[in-house]
Fold:
Amino acid sequence: AEHGIQADLCPKTYPSRALGEELRQTVPPDEPVFLFRSVHGSPELYQTLAAGHTVRDIPLYGVHTEALPPASLRTLDYLTFSSAGGVESFFELYEEIPKESTCVCIGGVTADALRRRYDRPFLIAERISADGIVEAIQKHRDAVC
Structure:
């Protein structure tokens, strides 16, 4: 907003496919769509919109991963994942999740990525936000303590 960019649409749900479908129904076909997002963003959003719209995919940021000593992971009560890419990066760096940690995913897409790599139970935030992750952890802590 400080730079003159205003959102025309805030989706009801956050996965890329849902956002793409909502934009396709809202944006007139002759109006260009500018996607300001991560360099690692899912191609699904672009593909959904490109069927009927002129789309400019503009990556604004990327994610840099830096490994911690594997022993430090054993001290984590909770391990949070805010994207499917984060799940993939974690497994590239560490190969497995410490048995002592409870995993928390921000939403369904992230949970699907974790499910493909991890066969133990984990938490999924009810709201796709940082607050949703905190709420999932608090609810879990209250249940086990």
Q: What stands out?
A: The chain has six helices and five strands. The mean pLDDT is 90.
